[in-house]
User: What shape does this take?
Amino acid sequence: MNRLLFEFVESWRIAYAQLRANRTRSFLTALGVIIGIVAVTLMGTAIGGINTGFENSLSILGDDILYISKSPWIRDGDDIAYRNRPAIRAIYADRLNAIIEGMPNSQLRLAVPAGNSFRKIKRGDSEVDRVFILGTTDGYSEISTVEFREGRFFTGEESRGGRNVVMLGFDVANALFPDESPLDKTVRIVGQEWRVIGVFARQGSFLGIFSFDNQAVLPLAAFQKYFKGKSRDEAEIRVRIKDKEKLAAARDELTGHMRRLRGLLPDEADNFAINANEAFKSTLGPIQAGIAIAGLFITSLSLFVGAIGIMNITFVSVKERTKEIGTRKALGARRRTILMQFLIEAVSICVLGGIAGIAVSWLLFTAVGSAFPSFPISFSMNLVMIGLFISALTGIVSGFAPAYTASKLDPVTALRYE
Amino acid sequence: MSTFPRGPEDIPPMRPHGPLVIDIDGVTKRYQMGSEEILALRGVSLKIFRNEYLAIMGPSGSGKSTLMNMLGCLDTPTAGKYEFNRKNVAAMEDDELAAIRNKEIGFVFQTFNLLPRSDALHNVELPLIYAGLPLDERRQRAEHALAQVGLANRMHHRPNELSGGQRQRVAIARALVNDPSIILADEPTGNLDSRTGEEIMALFETLYEQGHTIIVVTHEADIAEHARRIVRLRDGLIESDGPSGLLRG
Assistant: This one.
């Protein structure tokens, strides 16, 4: 046991002496590992960033909200059939709430209607085009996770009365009111004047496609009064459930209620869709995994090239020091001693390369992080541990063949080698 | 052909011999050299006792080096008996041979074979590392061995900071440090000038006086004459085995 420890210490000492003696060679060899580790950690972080962004997006949708609409979010082809379904009406929300109230054991908490449209918002000479306008009721504040930068949500009275009040998304407010608070100022939407009563805090975007900060929320009654072009009563219904662990039960219950509201017979198929963010999870999960596997595979090729460099230089080192190996064997070094010596030499180059690679990655992350603060990358302790583990593993894998060759050398031949 | 005592019972009284260390009987060694098969040893028998001072001589191709590798447990015989301290070396695996070399044999090479980047002390410590000794004991024994060869003030010099004679002394200290049963020197003066060579041979003489067992392999007759017994090889066989001129007077 002691002997193994002393041999181990001796091996590190030899490795250190070798690295010092062949600085340029060691550095060039380590460079392959450095590049490999940088590539792998960058790719790993990018994949982590994609996943984090994805999770953030889904959490804005809410994991305890069911969305009732005509068609499912992830469609499987026949769009026309979905489009020809009867509209989802805002009034369903009131009916659902009535049902929920009558059922103490209901898995559902609250239904809220939400009509939407993309419109221009103006204020004086400045305007923002294609803002997502959401018409809803005061119940929306109970199902949304949104927070306010300033101001408040509209009251039940404002909601029912269809007053011209509006809450602006973060980006919309900043674009129209760059230097002042928008509260109690007016903006123009569809030719009407609306008083700003609140501004949302920054929310971010959904998968980088749809920005939640580019929206405005106003009372559904006012929305139905002024926004033409769509069936007045058409809306999406958002239903908050009581327990997100019982999503499936809640969905079944809601399906039952909706079939009743739609007057469907038992043998008729659903003519509505109930969506939840898990639909995205199950669809995007495999895509995410595909990106991760392909990305890591391609980047690990560079690490593989680095590993070949290590293997090559270790073979050279064994060849150069054949006589030394012979001497060590004559003095009593066993096979495993020689094997360990060269393995540790390879591992030490790899680990040094790995540490340097992690340092380079850290610099890159810091640079990217300060240049693009919203970019979801993070440098974690995990990454350091994984980076070191991978580099040590690279050393073991690439050093094994040459080290084994060295350990099998015949001492007589090795001693005679010049 | 001179005859030399083959057992403890008929050893001349001038020097007390210890127990049997090496017992070789009818050893052969066959090599494959390309397509040619070489019979380097054709049946060699040899007994070496503790505290003998023995020289092995012979021209190149005589099997001298092969016999030395065999004695040093660097190689095993193709056929025949080889016992080292009554242990059957002929049947040993690589790692068992390594253990014997580590504990029982001190090698001294013509080219010194020191580790160039280590100082004298660490070079001498090396066999003790492989023996699994703790650091402070290694230090102590290595320092003692270096003092024995007169290098107490050169412990932290690297080989390239030492003269040829000093390097060979470091190598001898390394051979001594594990207190081996035999010291096996292969042309120990081959890379040294004759004056330094004489100093090294004087050191061997001292070690012999202290009770060490010394085997010197050489092709130089005047070096061999330092030993008490000379074994001559020719064509893979022992040609003669008898006392050196020193003993014959």
